Known about the structure:
The complex is a heterodimer of chains A (about 240) and B (about 300).
Chain A: E1 4-16, E2 21-33, E3 37-41, H1 48-55, E4 63-68, E5 71-75, H2 83-90, E6 91-94, H3 106-116, H4 121-134, H5 150-162, E7 168-172, H6 180-197, E8 200-204, E9 216-221, E10 224-229
Parallel strand pairs in A: 3-8, 3-9, 6-7, 7-8
Antiparallel strand pairs in A: 1-2, 1-4, 4-5, 9-10
Helix pairs in contact in A: 3-4, 3-5
Chain B: H1 5-11, E1 15-29, E2 34-42, E3 53-56, E4 65-69, E5 79-82, E6 85-93, E7 104-108, H2 109-119, H3 121-129, E8 142-147, H4 153-164, H5 171-215, H6 217-226, H7 230-259, H8 271-288, H9 290-298
Parallel strand pairs in B: 2-7, 4-6
Antiparallel strand pairs in B: 1-2, 1-8, 3-6, 4-7, 5-6
Helix pairs in contact in B: 5-8, 5-9, 7-8, 7-9
The complex binds adenosine-5'-diphosphate and magnesium ion (MG).
Amino acid sequence: MSSLAIKVENLKKEYITKDSTLQVIKGIDFELEKGEIAMLLGPSGSGKTTLLLMLGCILEPTSGRITLDDEIVYEDRWILKDTRKLRREKLGFIFQAHNLIPFLNVQDNVTLLPQLNGIAEVEYKKKAKEILTYLGIEDKTNYMIGSLSGGQSQRVAIARSLANDPRIILADEPTAALDKERAISVMELLRKLAKEQEVAMIVVTHDDRLLPYFDSVLKIDDGYLTKTKASETKLH
Amino acid sequence: MFEDVKYQIRNVEGVSEAAAMTFQTIQIPTSLKQERVTAVGYEIGKIGKPQNIISGRELAREHYEIVVDTKLGFKLDDKIPLGRNIYTVVGITKGAVSSSGEALVYISLKDAQQLQFLASNDTIRSDRARGIKDTTSTIVNTIVAKVSSGYSPKDIAENIKKWKHKSAYTNEKQVEILTKNVIEKSSKQIGLFTIILIIVSSVIISLIIYTMTIGKIKEIAILKLIGMPNIEIVKMIVQQSLVLGFLAFVAGNIFANAIKSKFPKNVQLLPEDSVGLFFVVVLVSVIGSLFGIYKALKANPAQAIGE
Ligand SMILES: Nc1ncnc2c1ncn2[C@@H]1O[C@H](COP(=O)(O)OP(=O)(O)O)[C@@H](O)[C@H]1O
Ligand SMILES: [Mg+2]
């Protein structure tokens, strides 16, 4: 067991359409430690979402190698067959708000994965209660998603991504829909979780003010990626 | 068959009584509309008289008296015009229906033959023109016979079949024939309707489930993205379809029971039919969700992220 949560080697992705081939990722390498929380930066259309989708085994890369939690999942083709099993057991996803299931209540949204993973009911309910309490929304346990505010549903989305005890959390602009205070409290929370539970996180954000909550910065530009320490990174 | 067959039947050993009967479908004017009924013609004082009279009496005179079923809504002494004559209601039965569910009315054999003659005037005229003798008044549908004690109805039926070349049925056989022929025929028609209705409802359920699934394609993509296996997604869709089917089943049953008395024909709603329908509903719901399932399985988890 290494201390690495994510290892990416010479990863490439091109989108092939009828009349053109778009090289979005042109060969990138980086590593992320367990418990490390990284900011993913880059201009719009630079391939941030594309990279997260590949790391989440949702989008097939063109070539290269991806190792997650010491397991090679991709090496020029999918090595791991049941990628959905990996997702429900080891990965957590957070997007912009409203990626919850509207016909389930807060608790059912949060307990969906542990339920599928065969965790006992008392256990996952207890865990959901813990997480929701931790996020300050335990009073919303039985609310329907539609009745929540933007900040509340974003916290439910975070709760859902934590409920299966993931080793890696991939977050695509999780704070975009939130005001400054809420964005900061969400970041504080994510950082705390990363440290306490040794969860590696990659968080896409455009918000410079959140830089202090990260360990490192992954900057993607023109298909290439550079990694720097957050403390040594000057934005702009 | 000719009416005089009854004399032959009477002479068969072991037969104590034999009488002719006719059956015909006629329309009678009730207070609301023309109602289709089955008119039974029988020989007064012989076997074949109306059962289950709840008020009044059976026929006593050879002409223009009628016994009707209570379902038709007549009172004693009501006058009903049939053919060229006015009939008087002298008795009322309860629950007298034909095998196809029409209410029964009873008139004398003579009246019945006269009515039949009126109804089939054209046929008879053309028969006459072709030189066929006028036989209307002696034609009947059936001869009913009573067996003396000590004789087996089955043996006598065999006997009549052999020597008189007529089909003869015992009571049990009669029931069997009725269910086999009359009911089977009408149940074939109903079966066709049922199949059409089932196909139509399958299509409707498919459309509903399909539309509902398309409407939830983003949620399905999210579920796939966070790692829900296909089997669970399929289960969800089938469950939804079953819930819909079950609600429709309950509503349909309540509705059917509420309006069955408004039907012109006697409708029997049997619990076993309901059970059968339940299984059909389950099957239709599952089949109806196939299209939706197909769409759901094709959904791309990456769709969850886009707008
Ligand atoms: N499915 C696709 N087919 C073709 N091109 C795509 C597809 N998805 C994204 N792209 C293109 O790839 C580039 C990177 O997109 P994306 O990863 O969404 O960028 P970002 O998240 O950094 O804004 C964009 O130019 C986009 O138009
Ligand atoms: Mg993006």
